[in-house]
Each structure stands twice: as structure tokens, then as C-alpha cells.
């Protein structure tokens, strides 16, 4: 009888929580410049109104895709990278379009090495391109002091801590004295307050952190720029990531121009460094990156999303998200993140005055690309700690720890999850 009564509730909630719906929509919004590259590279130039703004409601002018904006801003800085390189190494190459893009902006080099582990070698590469299947932290196929320029575009944020420090040290090894390392990446000083997330990102670094790591690895910093202003330094106000959202007092062009000299206030930082004759301090580089990861991973885990319209209640424990009786739908989801292979336990806190035979809520764990939840539990009683244990055989992307209301009774869920790693 109970199983029969649950069927319509379970069907309704699964239709709301289905991974092919919500997760895919979130994915579409949060794809990085790297994933948009091929389509953007081939797209025509967008025209803007005379005031430099783009409106999503203007029929004569298309809305401005933020990924288009970021990609072309990065292309502008590629044009200004230290010139004269004969041997360029790129860490993280998404496809043939990437090499075409670099040649179009920076110019043709005698040899372009591409280090890429996760994407297959594309067809039709130019004769000056050498494709190396390996991770960014292992450039053993490249001789020491053999490169003039190393470029890591939107790559560091995809790496685990030992891979970040390993890449910077490997870049120092393969570059000749006087060669240049150029790196750009999203800025945690903005991704955190924007609650911005990407299914493949571990933690984002700040410009202060990456320049400190580069100095430990033997580099002197020669330039630092910002792309896409997302904080008003006068007021501290965080500006919308989406250029089509209203931003009183700011035009798109102003945000693009001012960002260049304000990397700390920009969504993306861009750093250039020259290889000095100093011996890299490998132990200190690895240690610093490990410390940064331990410090900032907890914040990354809590980039949880609350659908618009939900009531929030403040307490000493944090924000509680309210769900009303009779209401069916997602109450909280996110953080849309990667986890390495291993065993984990995730815990939600739920409060409700009711205990019912039918479930009042459903908690589950889903991942991008998987049709079914990895783990799933119905909630029948209030004042509960709901824990699910999961085992991941491989690195898994786009993980979300979700809570949804069945409509059976009112409840509140704490906008915070506990994630324990490597449980026995």
C-alpha cells in the first residue's frame, strides 16, 4: 500500500530532479570559454548599441554571450604576449580550433607543442603542431630549457593541487632562461561571491596566490591584467557576471576597459612571468599549493544554489531554506563540482514539525552525464541529519548534492552540506 501511494510523489519529484533537465540547464549556463571555443571562434562579430550595452529584449541586436566576450578579450591579450617565440608550448588544448586561434592572434610559430590529456588528438592539425598526450604536470616528453613561451589558458582551475604546482615547476624546467610563462584563470575573489561554479573546476586561485607560486618556481612577474570587471572597487559592489543583466552606472565597454588594470576586481586574471636564473624551490611550491587547496576547498564545496523565490531564514547555524506544504520542487542543489575516485559521505540537515508516512523531502547525489542518481534517500521525519555514502570509481564531474520537496509537509533545509572524504 505504501509503495503504491508513493508512486505519484516519486514520479513528480524525479521529473523535477531529473539529471537530464536541471543539471543540463546548469551545464549550459556554466560552460567555460574553453568549451565554447570552437563555436565562438567560428561565429561572426556581434554588434553592440552605441552606448556599449546589450539588451536581451532588443530584437534588432542579439544578446551578448559572456563566453564570446571573455574569449575575444583573451584573444586580445594573446596578441600582446611576449613576441618572437619559435617554440611555444600550450598546456590544455581543446581542439584544432585552439591552434588556429593562437596562430590568428599571437602569430605563427615554428613549432607549437600541445599538452592535452583528456581530449583526443584532433584531425587536420597544422604541420607545425606536435600533439603530446599527457597531463600538464608531466612534460617529460619536452626537453629542459627548450621552449621560448609556455601558455596555460583556463587550465589551472581544472587541476588538483599537486598538478597545479607540478605544472608551474615543469614550465620552469622546459623554458629557457628568459623564456616566458603566461597563465590566465578565473579569479576566486569573484567566483566565490558570485557563487559561480563549473563542473570541472577544483579551486580557483587569486592573482596574489598564482604570482607567489610562480616566484617560488623561479619566475619574475612582468605583467598582470584583468578581464571583465565584476567588482566596483569604489563601493565593493559585485557586478553581474552576465553582461545582459542590468548594471546601473556601468556599460559593457567600461567594464572591459577598466578591468585591464584591475585584475583583483576582474572575473579573469592574466599573468606573465619571465624565467629567471633562480633555482625553483619545488618543496615550497608544492607545500604552498597544498595549503591553498586545504584552505579553499571547503568554500568550493558550499557553492550551493537556491532557486529564486525560496524564503531564507537566518540562524546561528546559517541560512535555512523554507519549503511549504503542498509544494513540489528543488529546494537546494549544487555545488556542481568534481571529486576524485574514493568513498565519501554527504550530510544534509533538515527541520520539520511533522513526521509522516509519506516522504516530505528527497535528498540525492547526481553527476553530470549520469541518467540516474548515484545515491538517493527519502526523508520522513523532521530534525534529521540525512547522510548518503557514495563510492566513485573514477574522477567524476558535475556532482550535485540536492534536496527537493515532495509537498508532503513543510520543512527547512540548512544551506550547507557536510562532505567527508576517504571514509573507511
Automatic annotation (TrEMBL):
Q: Which residues form the Methyltransferase type domain?
A: 92-183
Question: CDD domains attached here?
Answer: AdoMet_MTases
Query: InterPro entries under this entry?
Result: Methyltransf_11, SAM-dependent_MTases_sf
* Full protein name: Methyltransferase domain-containing protein
Its domain of life reads Bacteria
Entry keyword set: Methyltransferase, Transferase
Molecular function (GO) terms for this protein are: methyltransferase activity
Short name of one Pfam family:
Methyltransf_11
Q: Which GO terms describe its biological process?
A: methylation
